[in-house]
Design brief:
Blueprint lengths: L9 H17 L6 E2 L2 E2 L2 E7 L8 E7 L7 E11 L1 H8 L15 E9 L11 E5 L8 E5 L3 E3 L6 H21 L7 E4 L5 H10 L6 E6 L4 H4 L5 E4 L4 H8 L4 E6 L4 H9 E9 L13 H10 L5 H7 L2 E4 L2 H6 L4 H16 L7 E5 L4 H9 L6 E5 L37 E2 L1
Parallel strand pairs: 10-11, 10-13, 11-12, 13-14, 14-15, 16-17
Antiparallel strand pairs: 1-2, 3-4, 5-6, 5-8, 5-17, 6-7, 7-9, 16-18
Helix pairs in contact: 3-4, 3-11
This protein binds NADP nicotinamide-adenine-dinucleotide phosphate.
Pfam families: ADH_N, ADH_zinc_N_2
Keywords: Oxidoreductase
GO molecular function, one term: zinc ion binding
Length: about 425
């Protein structure tokens, strides 16, 4: 893979990110006609405000054109992450203004390029990170965030790859320095990141993986995880029964009381990494009670204790690294190593299910209901499966008023295509 242009520095990247949000996210959707010229339209998923599923709809929006340094991608598939659920609820730090088009990753074909986009050509098959706005038929994003994909990689796989495998890789190999013979504890082991962690651990000899997951997933993922525990039980005594000295690496995406438990399970020189706060999601909308409970339960760590116990405590956020801290270079290096592992057939994204844009509510409900094993994908070219009951997800004009129905979880009558 040819390297793309050198990454911009941190300050430049933050300004660029803000412009992207301004242009694609915070503004009211544009009308098809501007200045007497008819602009092409595209379908997008629109989040009209923070809250429940009723805040999501498919809408028409003017198609973006690439600016200098940007690549225009005809999107084939987008990744749906747990973070998108948290964004929908407004359960994140400094949420951008709504209406916005959600989504942080996609795959597709380069359709056009702005000035100074050396290294890319029209027709290239790519995957990309986007600072919001990925859930659309067309995306424009700076080339720093675009990667040509291997010939054998499908668009569905590419959309399932970027966020999960890059986050898993950087945590395991760059933050925690995973090596032969180590042990790793990972929560949500059947999910997108969890399965990427399990696969990457299997590329290093003699690594023991302890995982927690809902019991119905255990049969499907038992070969990828050495010791699996029901997520409803206290995993600490179970891990200690098998490994009394504890584990080398704890990957915690749950937060709350798991921070203290994770730190307690570390062997000397072990690394605990916090990379999510799934515990803050309870109902369909943001719960201040869950937020406060999670915050209250987090172990307030004294560095002197870490020093005395020889423990490492870390945090990891891929999107902040990319979009706020100018970390494109280490991310590109991780992507190249991951593509090499993919080409050697050592890793392969596990896809749970494919959904049309119009089915985004059902897809989100599935991840909320803990139903996914692997990654959920929005397949842009997939026609929606006909509904059996009331369809409230039809295409609508962007930004139109709608009634509030908090707690209104849509019907789940569609049968998704499960891979
Ligand atoms: N920091 C980063 O750079 C980064 C990057 C990607 C993802 N993440 C984080 O990693 C975690 C996993 O993300 P993902 O996109 O791969 O999602 P995922 O694991 O596929 O998410 C769904 C699974 O999470 C588990 N879960 C835990 N708490 C839950 C809750 N309160 N409600 C519903 N499900 C819950 C469920 O599995 P079980 O029932 O089997 O436990 C569920 O099936 C999230 O916390 C996400 O924010 C962080």
């Amino acid at each position: 893979m040819k390297p793309a242009d050198a990454p911009k520095d941190g300050a430049g990247m933050a300004a660029e990110t803000e412009r992207m949000i301004e242009r694609d996210g915070a503004k009211e959707p544009e009308s098809a006609a501007s200045g007497g010229e008819t602009r092409k339209e595209m379908r997008v998923v629109l989040l009209t405000g923070f809250g429940g599923l009723n805040k999501l709809r498919v809408a028409k929006k003017a198609m973006p054109e690439p600016q200098e340094g940007e690549v225009k991608i005809r999107v084939k598939a987008c990744g749906l992450n747990f973070l998108d659920l948290m964004v929908r609820q407004g359960n994140i730090d400094n949420p951008p203004k709504t209406p916005l088009v959600p989504g942080f990753e996609c795959s597709g074909i380069v359709e056009a390029m702005g000035e100074n986009t050396q290294g890319f050509e029209i027709g290239d098959r790519v995957m990309a990170f986007v600072n919001y706005s990925a859930w659309a038929e067309v995306v424009c994003t700076p080339l720093d965030f675009v990667y040509k994909i291997p010939d054998d990689m499908t668009f569905i796989e590419a959309a399932a790859f970027s966020m999960n495998f890059v986050a898993a890789y950087m945590m395991l190999f760059e933050v925690a320095a995973l090596r032969e013979g180590m042990s790793v504890l990972v929560h949500s082991a059947g999910g997108g990141v969890g399965q990427a962690v399990a696969q990457l651990c299997s590329t290093v000899s003699n690594v023991t993986v302890f995982g927690t997951a809902s019991p119905f997933k255990h049969e499907a993922i038992k070969d990828s995880v050495t010791h699996l525990f029901d997520r409803n039980i206290d995993y600490v005594p179970e891990v200690k029964k098998i490994s009394p000295e504890g584990v080398d690496i704890v990957l915690d995406c749950l937060c709350g009381e798991n921070t203290g438990k994770g730190l307690g399970l570390l062997k000397p020189l072990g690394t605990y990494i916090l990379y999510g706060s799934s515990n803050m999601v309870t109902g369909e909308t943001k719960s201040f009670f869950s937020f406060a409970k999670s915050w209250w339960q987090v172990e307030k760590v004294n560095p002197i204790k870490l020093y005395e116990e020889n423990k490492v405590m870390a945090g990891f956020s891929l999107l902040n690294l990319l979009f706020k801290q100018g970390g494109c270079k280490p991310v590109r290096s991780a992507v190249e190593k991951l593509f090499s592992l993919y080409n050697q057939k050592k890793i392969k994204p596990l896809v749970d299910s494919l959904w049309a844009l119009e089915e985004v509510k059902e897809a989100m409900q599935r991840i909320h209901d803990r139903g996914n094993i692997g990654k959920l994908i929005l397949d842009v070219e997939k026609p929606p499966t006909p509904l059996m009951a009331n369809d409230s997800t039809e295409t609508s004009e962007a930004g139109e008023d709608e009634e509030e129905h908090e707690g209104d979880s849509d019907n789940k009558e569609r049968m998704p295509f499960i891979q």
